[in-house]
Every structure is written in structure tokens, then in C-alpha cells.
Amino acid sequence: MEEQMRSEILKTIPYGFYITGVVGSDGEVNGFTTCWVSQVSFDPQQLIVAVRKDQHTHDLLEDSGVFSLNFLDTEQEELARRFTEPLQHENGQVGGSAYTTGETGAPLFEEAFAHLECRVAGKMEAGDHTVYLGDVVAASLKRPADILTDLDTPMEYGG
Ligand SMILES: Cc1cc2nc3c(=O)[nH]c(=O)nc-3n(C[C@H](O)[C@H](O)[C@H](O)COP(=O)(O)O)c2cc1C
After folding, report:
1. Which terminus of the chain has fewer Cβ atoms in its 10 Å neighbourhood, N or C?
2. What is the spatial distance between Cα 20 and Cα 33, in angstroms, rounded to a whole number?
3. Which DSSP category does 9 fall into?
4. Is-cis flag, bond preceding 14, omega within 30?
5. Hey, where are the domains in the chain?
6. Which of 109, 157, 107 minimizes the C-alpha distance to 129?
7. Has this prediction a pTM greater than 0.70?
């Protein structure tokens, strides 16, 4: 009963939607829809992202120690849905989405309106997720836009 209440309250925390871009040390590129993201330091600029341990993409991030955050806009719910499924890397695309390679080697998906690239500076075990602390080392803004949030869609992660 109280556990259900905790879940309901946790679900009210608002989140923005991103695709976290990852690359393995063998060059395998992938990405997954992510909302557990927060800036945690101004100087240096650092953020955290929580990644579920049983995901294939967790292994790639663990391997290379770099990741990108690809910011999704309010019209990109379908893209967010696509990247919640395990996706193949083929023909230079991930699940049909084209990308360029950032200076860290992480993929920058072309449909995103902005990108940040991070190098892992630390990590913490958090139950079924690993929380990665990233130094923000590069950024690009392709167009002004409003980020997709869980207030815009029935998609949810939390509870
Ligand atoms: C709205 C939403 C937000 C999500 N946010 C996260 C997140 O913050 N961290 C995470 O590890 N997985 C998150 N996921 C789950 C991943 O997108 C999903 O498990 C993905 O398939 C993992 O890819 P993989 O199986 O190729 O590793 C979220 C899913 C949804 C529907």
C-alpha cells in the first residue's frame, strides 16, 4: 500500500527526454531513450545519468567511458519510443537514425536538436542502475526547440 503510494509520488517527478548515445571499445554504436538525467555541478560542468544494468547499452558505456546526450523535442515522441527497443547498428545508422561521430567517439544523432558529450568521471552503484557522473566536454546546438518531457506524453519511467 505505502509502496504503491511511493511509486505514485516518484512518478510525479518531471523529466526531459534524451537518447543516450554509446559506443563500445570495438566501435559498436547504439543509443537508448533516457530520462534519469540531471546537471550536478557548474564548475566543472557535470551531469549524471542512471543506466539500467541489464541493458546491452550499459555494457557499451562501461566499456568506453564516454556517452552523448541527444536532446529530443516535443514532436519526437515516436523517436523516443523507437529508442526504448533494442536496436541494431547497420548501414551507418542505429535503428534507422543517422548520426555523426563526436569528438569523444560517441554518436550524435542528427534528429536531435542539441547534443552534449561527456567523459565518465565517476560512477555509483544504485540498485538496478549505475549512476554515471560525466564531465561535459563538447556541445552543439542545431536548432532552438523545447525539450520533450514526460508531461507531453504518456511514456513514463519511474515509480
Ligand atoms: C520514458 C522512458 C525513459 C527511460 N529512461 C531510462 C533511463 O533513464 N535509464 C535507463 O537505463 N533506461 C531508460 N529507459 C529504458 C531504455 O530506453 C530501454 O531499456 C532500452 O531498450 C535499452 O536499450 P538496450 O536494450 O539496447 O540496451 C527508459 C524508457 C522509457 C520508456
Report:
1. N
2. 6
3. H
4. no
5. 16-141
6. 157
7. yes
Report CA(74)–ligand 1 centroid distance (Å): 18
Q: Is the CB of 19 under 6 A from ligand 1?
A: no
Report whether residue 130 contacts ligand 1, using a CB cutoff of 6 Å.
no
Q: State whether residue 83 is helix, strand or coil.
A: coil
- pLDDT (tens digit, 9 = 90+) per residue, 101-139? 999 999 999 999 999 999 999 999 999 999 999 999 999
Do residues 45 and 136 make contact, with C-beta atoms less than 8 angstroms apart? yes
pLDDT in tens, 9-38: 999 999 999 999 999 988 999 999 999 999
Which grid cell sits at 83?
529508442
Any ligand 1 atom below 6 A from CB of 51: yes
